[in-house]
Amino acid sequence: MNHARPSDVTEGCAADWTVDQLREPAQRIADRIDELATFEPTAMRV
Questions:
Q1: Under a CB-based contact definition with an 8 Å cutoff, are residues 11 and 4 in contact?
Q2: CA pair distance 35, 16, nearest whole angstrom
Q3: Is 35 helix (H, G, I), strand (E, B) or coil?
Q4: pLDDT at 8
């Protein structure tokens, strides 16, 4: 279940990444999601 076959191209690329290599990009994504989730629209002008 959810195990890649040895010939899986994606598994070959992703298997070499370390937590330290993924930490900064993952944090940027999390920060952007947080920014969008807390967006407050400006008041409408009439």
A1: yes
A2: 30
A3: helix
A4: 66
